[in-house]
Specification:
Largest sheet: 9 strands, mixed
CATH architecture: 3-Layer(aba) Sandwich
CATH topology: Carbamate kinase
Oligomer: single chain
Radius of gyration: 17 Å
Helix content: 25-40%
CATH class: Alpha Beta
CATH superfamily: Acetylglutamate kinase-like
Structural class: alpha/beta
Length: about 240
């Protein structure tokens, strides 16, 4: 096993599964099963989930919402998703704790690096909701920040795509996949794997990112075990 502690970033859109909106119960149960399996291997896991299945601040802004209010709505969407995952994990008997970047006890504990690390060292999954707690930052940036704070070995970005490609494989059938790629090359090529703030945070703090397909059951265990199924983004 290559990783002792990981930050797992899950996309809100993926939680929709086969639905057009909201949370697909089958998908979130599959995620919970995979996370429990990896936790049982002794890997410490911190999780950040997006909120795009419920509300996206940027798209809300384009429809007339104030940007700050829109981003705050997006933060609350991540809390809803985090509570859903927490519930799914609890049903499976996997201990977990939900932390929020803005105070909202008793919904979740106010996020603190040391509490999150303590939870993980006690075998609990630390689910960190509410983004960074500030507007103008994406959940990718929140994931990078939390990954650095909790001293994760790597950030695992679970998406619908099985890695980083030369172009969007859903639009360009000629796109080819990278096995590894540097942060600089990703930026030079204009590849939209993460936003620039998240990319810079990871690069400056030497937090490698593994991009992989989380929607295929069993992939999380494979990628944690070092199997060559995603793309490693590194310095």
């Amino acid at each position: 096993m290559q990783f002792k502690r990981i930050l797992l970033k899950l996309s809100g859109e993926s939680l929709m599964g086969g639905k057009q909106y909201g949370i697909d119960e089958v998908r979130i149960d599959e995620y919970a099963q995979q996370i429990k399996e990896v936790a049982r291997m002794g890997v410490q896991i911190g999780i950040v989930i997006g909120g795009g299945n419920i509300f996206r601040g940027l798209s809300g802004t384009s429809k007339g919402f104030d940007r700050v209010k829109g981003d705050q709505m997006g933060m609350l969407a991540t809390v809803i998703n985090s509570l859903a995952l927490s519930s799914a994990l609890t049903i499976l008997g996997q201990k977990n704790r939900v932390f929020t970047a803005v105070r909202m006890e008793p919904v979740g504990e106010f996020y603190d690096k040391w509490k999150a690390i303590d939870a993980m060292e006690n075998g609990e999954i630390a689910i960190m909701a509410g983004g960074t707690g500030n507007p103008f930052f994406t959940t990718d940036t929140a994931s990078a920040l939390r990954g650095i704070e909790i001293e994760a070995d790597a950030m695992f970005k679970g998406t619908r795509v099985d890695g980083v490609y030369t172009a969007d494989p859903e639009k360009d059938p000629a796109a080819t996949k990278f096995r590894t790629i540097t942060f600089d090359e990703m930026y030079d090529r204009g590849l939209k794997v993460m936003d620039l703030t998240a990319t810079t945070l990871c690069k400056e703090n030497n937090l490698s990112v593994v991009v992989f397909d989380m929607d295929t059951v069993g992939n999380l265990k494979k990628v944690v075990n070092g199997e060559d199924i995603g793309t490693l983004v590194h310095l």
